[in-house]
Amino acid sequence: MKAMLVTGGGSGIGRAVAQLFSARGWRVGLADIDARALTETAALLPADRTSTHVMDVRGASEWEEVLAEFARISDGRLDLLFNNAGIAAGGAFADIGLEAIDRVIDVNFRGMAYGARMAFPYLKATPGSCLLNTASASAIYGSSGLAIYSATKFAVRGLTEALDGEWAQHGVRVRSLMPSFIDTNLLSVAVAGTNRTARDTVVAAGMEFTPVEVVAQKAWEAVHGDRLHTPVGRTARRMAFAARWLPGRMRTMMRAAGRRG
């Protein structure tokens, strides 16, 4: 039986991906800092193929402990680490507090890097394994109003590309998802310097939300396909096209967005 560990598994994208892979016969380990959310997600999955692991991805020792615990349950298999946990901070960069900057960097990149590093021996020992990192459409082109979030997702993109090169010789595939706006708890974050949430900003701009079920299907395709980065949602696809073919227009758009912010 194939086995996956998903961080941020208590809600949103992590929950949707866990549900899809579980429905297709996989053993699923759910990891999240929120124990209550883990319980809620686990209740949606078969009890005999599901485990829960409370952890903070910022802690290397917690990664070590959870991976070892999951390996005992899965008979040593780790076919997929879905490196997904992340947080957001929106608003003008000059208005964001240093503590918030540190937290976004620590969760969104340090946590991803620790996960990849600690999981490598398990992935290497499992033939055909995959590391799937959640990046963002904000890793396609730096996004005004999401500067620190965008920067961490560019770091995830870089890590993905580097490890794809390094780990191919070990039979470990490395991929990323680049979803655009998904209506999850991430968009509930307040925009610095305003009384709006990130969700309010997306709605006001007339941009679409991509259902988490679509992201889950794209995750399945990413794990089983050969594409390094998978943009998810119309906005992400448009950004990928414009960043490649119309970089001047993208720059103008982000400057306009910065003035609105």
Automatic annotation (TrEMBL):
Domain of life (superkingdom): Bacteria
Q: Which InterPro entries match?
A: NAD(P)-bd_dom_sf (IPR036291), SDR_fam (IPR002347)
Entry keyword set: Oxidoreductase
Quote the Pfam families the UniProt record gives: adh_short
Instruction: Cite the Gene3D superfamilies for this sequence.
Output: NAD(P)-binding Rossmann-like Domain (3.40.50.720)
Return one GO MF term.
oxidoreductase activity
What is stated as this protein's family in its record?
Answer: Belongs to the short-chain dehydrogenases/reductases (SDR) family.
> What name goes with this protein?
Short-chain dehydrogenase
Q: What does UniProt list as this organism's lineage?
A: Bacteria, Pseudomonadati, Pseudomonadota, Alphaproteobacteria, Sphingomonadales
